[in-house]
Design goal:
alpha+beta; two-stranded antiparallel ribbon; 5 helices; 2 strands; 16% strand; extended; Tyr recombinase domain-containing protein; DNA recombination; DNA binding; DNA_brk_join_enz; Integrase-like_cat_sf
């Protein structure tokens, strides 16, 4: 599955490798780095869950679709959607000020 995702992401021109840094137990960036692909099975799963929640507005449906045992794990998607809306509204407000 992973190889297929990498293949089609590359064909679509959306695959790139990014440099990530290891972190210590306190979250401080270490000198040692590694390459990571930008489009992964996890990013597709995350995108699917976010889009599903935006469309159906039903957290329980998203929980079942992802196979989460606990609804608290699924609730992260609510925070992401709210944050996205705040950032979008902030951008639009700043754009209106410039006009």
């Amino acid at each position: 599955m992973r190889k297929m995702i990498y293949k089609y992401a590359k064909k679509a021109g959306i695959q790139e490798e990014v440099t990530k840094y290891y972190r210590d137990d306190n979250g401080n960036k270490l000198d040692k780095s590694y390459q990571e692909k930008k489009v992964t099975p996890h990013t597709l799963r995350h995108t699917y869950a976010t889009d599903l929640l935006r469309e159906c507005h039903n957290l329980e449906k998203v929980r079942k679709a992802l196979g989460h045992a606990d609804i608290s794990i699924t609730q992260i998607y609510i925070h992401l959607i709210v944050l996205n809306a705040i950032l979008r509204n902030h951008f639009l407000a700043n754009l209106l000020i410039l006009l």
